[in-house]
Design a protein that fits this description.
The structure is a single chain. By secondary structure, the chain is of the alpha/beta class. The protein is globular. About 35% of the residues lie in helices and about 20% in strands. Strands 1, 2, 3, 4, 5, 6, 7 and 8 form an eight-stranded mixed sheet that branches. Strand 2 and strand 3 form a beta hairpin.
Length: about 220
Amino acid sequence: MKVLGHRGCKYEIENTIRSFEKAFELGADGIELDTQSTLDNTIVVSHDENLKRVFGVDFKIREHTLFELESISKDGEKVPTLESVLEIAKSRSKMVDVELKNPKDLEAVAKIVQSFNYGGFFISSFYHRAMLEGKERFPKIKFAFLYAHVPEDVSLYAKKIDLLKPEIEFVTPEYRNYASITIPWTVNEKEDFEKLYDLNVFAVISDYPDKIIEFLKEKT
């Protein structure tokens, strides 16, 4: 079971270089991150389009240039570009789950991911049409359906796309049949870990990658 740090990890400001570095330091096999686009079409890493929740500033990323965005910081951390994070991850041979927050950014995000020519990166999104389009247009990249529901037919999802990212509460025993392509989120509790360990899923996404790694050590 691989362990990916959710937005890096909860010990640092989410989706920042420090948070990703901390996740790697804790032993995570990779990270999950979110993408937004600036006014001048630079793909950056942020869950929210507005920086108010994380940085305490009412600042909409899509309404400002990268130069303007770089003036915003908190505890020395800024909103990083996607490219800068992927460079770090590849240099450490880590996985990255690149979540597409806006389907309009599909081409820009996919081109960045593809430019690294590295199999450890994949793109996920709640926008399944965008994922199917991406799979068709960028066959060298792996794409994932992200969802928070019970599909009518999991097998149809599995046939259409490379990876499945269901929310933990919607993972059923049926996923044992698709364990090798399943990456549930967000897994923080031992009870959830045990359930997924028994299903032998490929990877999990956690706010606390160190906790999941400890649970795994207890199994060996």
